[in-house]
Every structure is written in structure tokens, then in C-alpha cells.
Design goal:
This is DUF3086 domain-containing protein. By secondary structure, the chain is mainly alpha-helical. The chain has helices at 9-13, 25-32, 36-44, 46-51, 93-108, 112-199, 201-232, 275-290, 307-319, 332-350, 363-377, 396-408; strands at 323-327, 354-359, 390-393, 412-417, 434-438. The protein has a domain at 269-438: Rossmann fold (3-Layer(aba) Sandwich), CATH 3.40.50.300. The protein contains twelve helices and five strands. The chain is rod-shaped and about 175 Å long.
């Protein structure tokens, strides 16, 4: 028995003589239904749920007793005590559930207004949550659309980059192929030029010049040693010869030799009285042919004269006496070589008194003569024009006026006429030194296309 006079249900439930009762769930639901609405408010309110004592669920087996909360006893009064209940009437499980539900109802019924307020707050909170959920859902949809757009842009960008890279690679490959073709063409051209230089006159002359310079240094050293040795040798003095004086024969005009003329206006190379001058000319031509000096001073020939060129120069000096035409060699460069040899020889004879004038009908041909003289005689730009160098003319009349002034200054003019001149002014024939290159009659020369 408890302190309130009720019997202890645990002892009755554990009794072996009592049979287990089957609980009807529908009956329990009908008993709980009147308080279903307050219970919903209680569960929605988190604060009240935390303060509510836990409810023990109903066990499936009736042998296990459900704990019941202690019901406070009513305050004692002066009323007479009730007669005790007979021990045979023990409370059933339904009675326990009824007591528990009454206690829960007593705890919930005193605060109906709080339940209503809690439900309104929960409704407002739920509304805010729903609104927030809708906003989040809208943002999610927007972000997904943005994500899809960005993915599409990334795909388009990758595709564009792929096309650009492919186009660039194709262009670079084409440029590489073009450059490779250009390099191959330049290499073939270089090889061809090397082969032409090795076979041409200039290339062979350069090779020979390098060899001859070394041989020249050797000869100079040897000759210096020879001179020193020759100076140390003592030769015996010959006995003085007896001199017999004879009466000289009277000289007649027929036997009296004519004195050599020193007039520079009429040079002669063939008369016996000018053997010294002819010897100098032949010595110079032989030197240019057999032992050329590629590092000679200015106005001296720096190229090798071949036999055909030397014959042309000798023929002009000794056969034509420095006034006549020579058959062209078929190339302006070879004609310039012959003229440069003649200028070099005349420069040795007349020195600074010599004035060289070149006549050609086109500036391009005059440019060829300028470059040829620079190469063969070692001239520079100041050596052309003025009073002491080579003067180039296109007009015969201007050339004749210049020659007249040179003769008036008691200087020696030397006129060179290019093979492009079809006609020669008769005024040129009066001067003492002129060299004309006659065109080849077997080859027709065009004023605009000319063989070189």
C-alpha cells in the first residue's frame, strides 16, 4: 500500500496468478484524442518540450510495469478518514493511463493562452522559414542558370582557343616551310657563287695574291741579305786605259742626231730616239703580267694582266703610238682592265700631269667605269672629278671643252671612249692620247641591253 492508501500495482503485476491483459490501442487513442490539440502546441514549442518530463512508451509485454509519476497528496483536513479500500481491488493498466493523462491535462490546461501564443509564433516562424526557403530556392535556380552559362562560356572559350592555336600553328608551319625553302635557295646560291668565284678571274687573282705576298716577303728579305753581302765584297781595280785623242769628224745635218723633244704635247713611243721610254713601257707591262702587286699604291695596277690583255696594251702603245682604237674584249670589265693598265703606265711616265677623261653615253656605264677603276687602281671617291683625277663625261662636246682647257694648262689629256659610242667626234682625233674600244661587228649592241 502507498502512503495515500492505494495498493501498489507492481506487486499485483508481478503476481504469477494474474493473467496478462491485452490493451486495445483504439481505446487508448480515443482517450488521448481530447487533448490532441494542446499536445500539438506543446511539441511545436521548443521551450515547453524541454521542461516536460519524458513519457515512457507502452511496453509490448504486459509483464513490464510502466512507471507512473508520483501524484502529490492533497493537503490534510480535519475531515474523517475514508474507509480503506478492500485489498482485493487493485488498479489496472487502464487506470494508470487515465491517471497519467489527467496529470498531463492538469499541467497543460492552466496555460491555454501561452499555447495560443506559441502556436502563432510557430506559425510566423514557419512563414519566415517558408519565405526564406523560397528565396533560397530562387537563388539556387539563378545560380544554377549562371553556372550553366559560365560552363557554356568556358566551353566556347576552349573551342575558340583551340581554333586560334590550330590556326597559329598552321601559319607558323607554313612560314617555317617558306623560310626553309628560302634558306635552301640561299645556300644553293652561296655554293654557286663560291664555285664561280673560285673559277673566275677575281677569285683566282685573290688566291694568287695571297701566295705572292708571302713569296714577296721572302724575296725582299733574301735580296736585302744579298745586298749586304755584295757591299762587303772587294773587287780589284782595273788598270787605267790609255785614251787616244782623235779629231772628231765634222757633223753634217744628215748624220747629226736630232735632240729628243721634251714637249709633252706630242709623245712618241716607236722612234729609235725614244727607246728609253719604250723600255719603261715594256718593263711596266711585263711587271703587271708576271709579278702583279695587289697591294700597290694608288694609280698602280693591282690586277694581273693576262697575255691577251698585255698584247692589247702593247699594240696600242707601239703599233698605234698611243692614238687608236682597240677591238673590245666582249666585256666592259676586261676593257676597263686594259684601260687601267694604260693609265698606270702613263701615270709612271707623266705623273700628275696626266688627266684621264672617260666618255660613255649612259650614267650606268659611267658607274661601271668608276667601280672598275676603283678596283684596278685602288682609287677612292676624291680621285674622280676635279683637277687631278679621272673625269667622266656623257656629252662629247663637254669633253672637248675640258680637253682644250687641259691642253691650255700644258697638261697631258688621255681620252678613253667606251664601246657604246657608235660615232667618234673628229675633234677628239686631234689630241695626242686617246683610246677607243671598237664594238664587235659580229655582236649587235643595244643601247638598253648590253653585254658586260
Amino acid at each position: 500500500m502507498n502512503s495515500d492508501g492505494t495498493a501498489n500495482p507492481k506487486s499485483d503485476l508481478k503476481s504469477p496468478n494474474r493473467s496478462p491483459e491485452i490493451i486495445d490501442v483504439s481505446v487508448v487513442e480515443e482517450e488521448i484524442s481530447p487533448v490532441s490539440e494542446p499536445l500539438e502546441d506543446v511539441w511545436n514549442n521548443n521551450d515547453e518540450v524541454k521542461t516536460q518530463p519524458p513519457v515512457t512508451p507502452v511496453a509490448e509485454e504486459p509483464q513490464v510495469a510502466t512507471p507512473t509519476p508520483a501524484i502529490p497528496s492533497p493537503p490534510k483536513t480535519s475531515a474523517p478518514p475514508e474507509p480503506p479500500e478492500p485489498a482485493a481491488q487493485t488498479p489496472t493498466l487502464d487506470d494508470n493511463w487515465a491517471v497519467l493523462l489527467d496529470e498531463i491535462g492538469q499541467e497543460l490546461d492552466p496555460e491555454p493562452e501561452a499555447s495560443i501564443n506559441s502556436s502563432e509564433a510557430a506559425t510566423a516562424k514557419m512563414t519566415n522559414l517558408l519565405r526564406t526557403e523560397s528565396q533560397i530556392a530562387a537563388e539556387i535556380v539563378k545560380l544554377r542558370a549562371t553556372q550553366a552559362q559560365l560552363q557554356q562560356q568556358i566551353i566556347d572559350t576552349q573551342t575558340s582557343f583551340g581554333h586560334i592555336i590550330q590556326t597559329s600553328v598552321t601559319e607558323l608551319e607554313q612560314r617555317r616551310q617558306k623560310l626553309q625553302i628560302s634558306v635552301e635557295q640561299l645556300e644553293r646560291r652561296r655554293d654557286r657563287l663560291k664555285e664561280e668565284i673560285s673559277k673566275s678571274f677575281a677569285g683566282a687573282s685573290q688566291d694568287v695574291a695571297i701566295r705572292l705576298q708571302g713569296f714577296k716577303d721572302y724575296l725582299v728579305g733574301s735580296l736585302q741579305d744579298l745586298v749586304v753581302i755584295a757591299e762587303e765584297i772587294e773587287f780589284p781595280q782595273p788598270p787605267p786605259a790609255q785614251i787616244r785623242l782623235q779629231t772628231p769628224l765634222p757633223k753634217t745635218p744628215a748624220t747629226q742626231p736630232q735632240p729628243a723633244s721634251k714637249d709633252r704635247s706630242s709623245p712618241q713611243f716607236t722612234e729609235p730616239a725614244f727607246k728609253a721610254t719604250a723600255g719603261k713601257v715594256r718593263a711596266a707591262i711585263d711587271r703587271y703580267r708576271s709579278a702583279p702587286d695587289y697591294y700597290a699604291p694608288t694609280w698602280q695596277l693591282r690586277r694581273t694582266l693576262e697575255a691577251v690583255h698585255a698584247d692589247k696594251v702593247s699594240d696600242w702603245f707601239f703599233t698605234k703610238d698611243g692614238r687608236g682604237a682597240v677591238r673590245t674584249m666582249g666585256s666592259r670589265l676586261q676593257n676597263i682592265l686594259i684601260a687601267a693598265a694604260a693609265v698606270s703606265v702613263l701615270r709612271e711616265l707623266y705623273g700628275d700631269y696626266l688627266r684621264t677623261l672617260v666618255l660613255a653615253n649612259l650614267p650606268e656605264r659611267l658607274g661601271d667605269w668608276r667601280r672598275g677603276f676603283q678596283d684596278c687602281l685602288g682609287l677612292s671617291k676624291p680621285d674622280f672629278g676635279g683637277n687631278g683625277g679621272i673625269i667622266l663625261f656623257e656629252d662629247p662636246e663637254a669633253l672637248i671643252q675640258k680637253v682644250d682647257r687641259i691642253v691650255a694648262n700644258k697638261e697631258m689629256p688621255f681620252i678613253i671612249i667606251d664601246n657604246s659610242e657608235g660615232q667618234i667626234s673628229l675633234s677628239i682625233l686631234q689630241y695626242p692620247l686617246w683610246l677607243a674600244f671598237a664594238p664587235d661587228p659580229d655582236r649587235q649592241i643595244d643601247d638598253f641591253r648590253e653585254y658586260r
